[in-house]
Write a structure and sequence with these properties.
about 15% strand; binds pyridoxal-5'-phosphate; single chain; alpha/beta; about 425 residues; 14 helices; about 40% helix; 5-stranded mixed β-sheet
């Protein structure tokens, strides 16, 4: 796991280098583009491409609809393929340990497109019940209109998977760690259960919280990873993006869905994500992992805090599973950059705490989202998961005094001081 696969396409003499070095150098040489002499790839941007003959144009369209891409694609129109975006996709695929990647305009475009590529009407998606707010809305409001049913279960209980898999189940979907309360789902066990039962049911995992630096679900048998690139992978809070990473056999349909539904990643966003995001991912996350542990321990020992959930704490209920599946490419424990904690008292106390942060804190900002250089704090019940009904919030076991904090790059002692002041 420590070393990457032979690449043969860059200068690595032995055909090997560490994934961390790969984050920085990537595959900058390919038959697809000619950026070999740029230290930083150019921000290429062209909606349409001049073709040398009608015959070549026809071949381009034909190849695209037959195979997705050829190894030397004939570029025709941005929505089908664009060289800089292709470079980002090849690098992301490798970092997630998949064969191919297709990027999208946002995480939600990636999730929706992946599911549209896999599931037809009358088929079923089985999902863990705790979900990112918009994914929950997609599953309960929009997919049912296409006659795709979504059953929400508790996937921490493996029996519930066995009991609910039917011949119509096309996708088993979950986030691990889940948003917001960091429940973990066993990727390996669930992939085994699903694949033992059917080879046309696919395990799809939203890996946005962990990022490929902390967890690579395909290594544990999952079929698809979906990402919001807008979080830790982009890393600076400037550009939305999404990605699906999987095996070659699914490339064609993913590209066709992207072409026809149109949720294509802008090449400018691709450039930012590739040049600034990926190359600094490991450094940012190493710092955040250390800070998150320190902040989690501080919260755990604070008298105004009822409970802290952070996969790195000894008190974490699924500690063993965290150690099994949350690891850096070099095998160190990597329990992520988010902390969820429940305050003592009532929802009014939680509101007062957040208002205090909003007014007085310097290093912590009251805002949704995560994965940026700045530490962000929010109340899921009042903010990210506010559009859910009371009943849905209860099904997700969301506590109204729950707080989610997404650690940034500040000095952790400053984050702790701001928390301490607001807790007083
Ligand atoms: C942010 C997020 C998404 C959606 O991503 P966008 O890029 O905002 O569309 C999906 N899943 C998780 C876990 C997220 O945090």
């Amino acid at each position: 796991m420590k070393r990457i696969l032979p690449c043969g396409r860059n200068k690595c003499k032995k055909g090997k280098c560490s994934l961390e070095t790969f984050y920085i150098h990537g595959w900058h040489r390919s038959k697809k583009w000619d950026f070999g002499h740029h230290l930083v790839p150019p921000m290429s941007s062209s909606i349409t491409y001049r073709v040398d003959s009608a015959e070549r144009a026809a071949r381009g369209f034909h190849e695209f609809s037959e195979h997705g891409y050829s190894p030397t694609p004939i570029y025709i129109y941005d929505r089908l393929g664009e060289p800089l975006r292709d470079m980002l996709e090849e690098n992301l695929a490798h970092i997630e340990r998949g064969e191919i990647c297709v990027t999208f305009s946002s995480g939600m475009a990636a999730i929706a497109s992946c599911l549209l590529a896999l599931v037809k009407s009358k088929e079923q998606i089985l999902s863990h019940k705790v979900l990112y707010g918009c994914t929950h809305s997609l599953f309960t409001k929009w997919l049912p209109r296409l006659d795709i049913s979504v059953k929400l279960i508790d996937m921490r209980d493996l029996n519930q998977i066995e009991d609910n898999l039917t011949k119509d189940t096309r996708v088993v979907y979950f986030e691990t760690p889940s948003n917001p309360d960091l429940q973990l789902i066993d990727i390996e066990k669930i992939s085994q259960i699903v694949h033992n039962k059917s080879n046309t049911t696919y395990v799809v995992i939203d890996n946005s919280f962990a990022t490929p630096f902390c967890q690579r679900p395909l290594e544990f048998g999952a079929d698809f990873v979906v990402h919001s690139l807008s979080k830790d992978i982009e890393g600076f809070g400037t550009d939305l993006g999404g990605a699906v990473i999987t095996r070659k056999e699914f490339l064609k349909n993913l590209l066709l869905v992207r072409k026809d539904f149109g949720g294509v990643l802008s090449s400018r966003n691709a450039w930012h994500i590739l040049v600034y995001g990926l190359s600094s991912l490991h450094l940012r996350l190493k710092h955040k992992l250390q800070s998150a542990m320190k902040v989690a321990k501080f919260l755990e020992n604070h008298s105004k805090v009822e409970k802290v959930l952070y996969p790195g704490l000894n008190s974490f209920p699924q500690k063993k599973l965290a150690h099994k599946q949350m690891k850096t490419p070099t095998g160190e424990f990597a329990p992520g950059t988010l902390i969820y904690f429940i305050l003592k008292g009532t929802i009014q106390d939680a509101k007062r705490f957040l208002d205090r942060i909003a007014k007085k804190a310097y290093s912590i900002t009251l805002a949704v989202s995560l994965g940026q250089v700045k530490t962000l704090i929010e109340s899921p019940v009042l903010m990210t998961h506010a559009t859910l009904s009371k009943k849905e919030q209860e099904e997700m076991e969301l506590d109204e005094r729950g707080i989610r904090i997404a650690i940034g790059l500040e000095d952790p002692d400053d984050i702790i001081e701001d928390l301490n002041n607001a807790l007083k």
